[in-house]
Amino acid sequence: MTTPIQTISPPQLLYDCDFLQWTEAMIFHLQNRDFNQLDIANLIEEIDGLGKSQKNAFKGQIRALIEHIMKRRYVDMPLEYRGWERTIRNIRPEIEDLLETSPSLANDYEQILDRAYEQCLKKLRPEYPSADFPDTWQFTRSLDTLLNFDFWE
């Protein structure tokens, strides 16, 4: 059993003054089913933030993966290939870890793919003006394929 957290301030004030102590107090109250002492409004905000954080991490990793696949596939800079491939190999397990923790992230993948591709185009076209990037993703829309297939071979 966890020892009680001494809180001098109400939970809402503690949230603003000492976040770590607030989390410890909320855990203590949850473990002891002391629901009257919970800071419900801030708990809801934090749980919502956790979900958004996971979605944003997933989107960011998908975008980074697509960016490096695009560079490797369409940018004629052979001296850079190895670095881009290494980055691709590093990003893929990060995405797999996110999906292992939260499989439902895959539900939004197709929408994320289109938006991520558009964002990559905006970034890469000015950086590599001689590259011929297609206006839309030219490959399968399968997440499994994105995580396992080398599109440049």
Tell me the radius of gyration.
22 Å
Total E-strand runs: 0
Gap between N and C termini: 56 Å
- Strand proportion, as a percent range, falls in under 5%
H/I helix tally: 6
* Percent helix: 55-70%
Overall geometry comes to elongated
List the helices and strands in order.
HHHHHH
Structural class: mainly alpha
- Regions with pLDDT < 50 over 5+ consecutive residues? none
Q: How many distinct folded domains?
A: 1
The average pLDDT score comes to: 92
Sheet with the most strands, sense and barrel status = none
Describe the model.
The structure is a single chain. The chain has 153 residues and is mostly helical. It has one domain (40-148). The chain has six helices and no strands. It has helices at residues 11-17, 19-31, 40-74, 78-101, 109-127, 143-148. Helix 1 (11-17) packs antiparallel against helix 2 (19-31) and helix 3 (40-74) runs antiparallel to helix 4. The protein starts with 10 loop residues before the first helix and ends in a 5-residue tail after the last helix.
Brief digest:
The protein contains 6 helices and no strands.
